[in-house]
């Protein structure tokens, strides 16, 4: 039994009603957790071993190949004075020549004026959106931007905050026009519209139509008072020359005011870098609470980031970039040519909305979500994990109700044979679901789901 399925089953036992002897505070917490248990969406950590990875962000294979480890150990030898960190925040005692040099190298790689390295992408987004938009500014954001951007906006003094339909230039234009009409300071050019997008959307895998949005903003805002902010978390290492991101791929470095590159995914490290000019960097360092009241990244963390960037600059990851493109396209070709695909997709048993109507996409991302019917994404996740492939269900509130899916990520470490077998594995689940559909017994569960629920019952019985 896979570790994912075992720990899922262990997590689902209802506890709120059976914990009367515990203090009310903890009973209330358990009652909240029971809401997730009732939906089958409470998760416990598990250790992934002996399984083919289709879920982690190691897209370039820097971790699985050992390339980053070797580069890190070489870089680690040159750390200043052998110190692990400098206690203090950036504006007190936490600054160092090593950190400043790393930021300079990152900025040069992405053709940016300056860089600010911080502890995580979430911290960076909260810092940016709570600090950069000023009173009187407006924030216009894609409806699918990351939760950390929403957290930052909650603390922003910019009261005009509006979303536009995902990756839809018409909705963007209409919403931007409504902001111009309702906000006099935007209309007269004394305040700005802050536009928030992502290069690759994490739950959908599609790529931002950045050029179209910039062109539309220029047409509508006669004072050229739009500032674009792009989260390149999943574009880093995958898109652009040597993995420099979507903005560099499109040559829009001068058109985008702030870029966020994060490192725990394709670069196999931790932390993030905010790319901007000196004015933005000074504003963040002096006014962003999430940066003011925290310590600087440790030297080992900085060394791992620097090691990853050295691999990018050397060009040694270009082959991996190209291989990810090949593997995703191979998967699409394989699954679409399977005999079960046409009927299963027409019935909604499994779908790939991202590529519907696009038989030969020119550029793809490493993220490929497979949509299912409601609650069936859990069944598909059970099936692939039991078959030796990792993949996890994505449920509400991470995605809207009715848009359940299992999100898979492709990696250069995978082979053509891995990808073809993986596509066949998913199609075997679809065949079983069609067999259940044809039988008319809609209460019947697929095999892997029956096994998972049997383990859950066993845990519940043992806990009584």
From TrEMBL:
<keyword id="KW-0663">Pyridoxal phosphate</keyword>
<dbReference type="InterPro" id="IPR004839">
    <property type="entry name" value="Aminotransferase_I/II_large"/>
</dbReference>
<dbReference type="InterPro" id="IPR050087">
    <property type="entry name" value="AON_synthase_class-II"/>
</dbReference>
<dbReference type="InterPro" id="IPR015421">
    <property type="entry name" value="PyrdxlP-dep_Trfase_major"/>
</dbReference>
<dbReference type="GO" id="GO:0030170">
    <property type="term" value="F:pyridoxal phosphate binding"/>
</dbReference>
<dbReference type="GO" id="GO:0016740">
    <property type="term" value="F:transferase activity"/>
</dbReference>
<dbReference type="GO" id="GO:0009102">
    <property type="term" value="P:biotin biosynthetic process"/>
</dbReference>
<comment type="similarity">
    <text>Belongs to the class-II pyridoxal-phosphate-dependent aminotransferase family. BioF subfamily.</text>
</comment>
<keyword id="KW-0808">Transferase</keyword>
<dbReference type="Pfam" id="PF00155">
    <property type="entry name" value="Aminotran_1_2"/>
</dbReference>
<dbReference type="InterPro" id="IPR015424">
    <property type="entry name" value="PyrdxlP-dep_Trfase"/>
</dbReference>
<feature type="domain" description="Aminotransferase class I/classII large">
    <location>
        <begin position="51"/>
        <end position="335"/>
    </location>
</feature>
<dbReference type="InterPro" id="IPR015422">
    <property type="entry name" value="PyrdxlP-dep_Trfase_small"/>
</dbReference>
<protein>
    <recommendedName>
        <fullName>Aminotransferase class I/classII large domain-containing protein</fullName>
    </recommendedName>
</protein>
């Amino acid at each position: 039994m896979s570790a994912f399925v075992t720990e899922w089953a262990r997590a689902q036992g209802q506890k709120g009603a059976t914990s009367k002897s515990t203090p009310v505070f903890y009973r209330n917490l358990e009652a909240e957790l029971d809401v997730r248990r009732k939906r089958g969406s409470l998760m416990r950590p598990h250790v992934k071993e002996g399984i083919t990875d289709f879920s982690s962000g190691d897209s370039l294979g820097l971790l699985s190949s050992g390339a980053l480890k070797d580069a890190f150990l070489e870089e680690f030898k040159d750390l200043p004075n052998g110190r692990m960190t400098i206690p203090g925040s950036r504006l007190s005692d936490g600054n160092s020549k090593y950190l400043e040099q790393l930021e300079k190298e990152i900025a040069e790689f992405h053709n940016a004026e300056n860089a600010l390295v911080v502890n995580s992408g979430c911290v960076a987004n909260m810092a940016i959106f709570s600090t950069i938009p000023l009173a009187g500014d407006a924030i216009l954001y894609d409806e699918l931007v990351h939760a950390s951007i929403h957290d930052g906006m909650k603390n922003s003094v910019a009261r005009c905050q509006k979303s536009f339909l995902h990756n839809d230039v018409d909705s963007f234009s209409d919403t931007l026009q409504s902001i111009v009409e309702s906000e006099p300071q935007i209309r007269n050019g004394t305040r700005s519209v802050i536009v928030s997008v992502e290069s690759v959307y994490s739950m959908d895998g599609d790529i931002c139509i950045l050029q179209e949005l910039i062109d539309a903003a220029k047409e509508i805002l006669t004072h050229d008072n739009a500032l674009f902010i792009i989260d390149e978390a999943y574009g880093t290492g995958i898109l652009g020359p040597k993995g420099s991101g979507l903005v560099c791929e499109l040559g829009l470095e001068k058109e985008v005011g702030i870029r966020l590159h994060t490192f725990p995914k394709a670069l196999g490290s931790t932390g993030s870098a905010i790319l901007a000019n000196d004015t933005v960097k000074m504003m963040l360092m002096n006014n962003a609470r999430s940066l003011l009241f925290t310590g600087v990244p440790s030297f080992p963390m900085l060394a791992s980031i620097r090691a990853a960037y050295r691999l990018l600059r050397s060009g040694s990851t270009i082959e991996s970039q190209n291989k990810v493109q090949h593997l995703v396209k191979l998967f699409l070709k394989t699954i679409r040519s399977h005999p079960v695909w046409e009927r299963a997709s027409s019935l909604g048993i499994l779908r790939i909305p991202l590529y519907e109507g696009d038989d030969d996409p020119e550029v793809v991302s490493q993220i490929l979500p497979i949509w299912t019917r409601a609650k069936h994404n859990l069944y598909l996740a059970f099936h692939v994990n039991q078959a030796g492939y990792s993949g996890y269900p994505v449920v509400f509130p991470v995605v809207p109700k009715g848009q359940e899916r299992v999100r898979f990520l492709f990696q250069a470490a995978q082979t053509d044979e891995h990808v073809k077998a993986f596509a066949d594995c998913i199609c075997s689940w679809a065949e079983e679901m069609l067999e259940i559909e044809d039988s008319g017994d809609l209460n019947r569960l697929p095999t892997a789901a029956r096994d998972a629920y049997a383990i859950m019952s066993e845990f519940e019985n043992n806990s009584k």
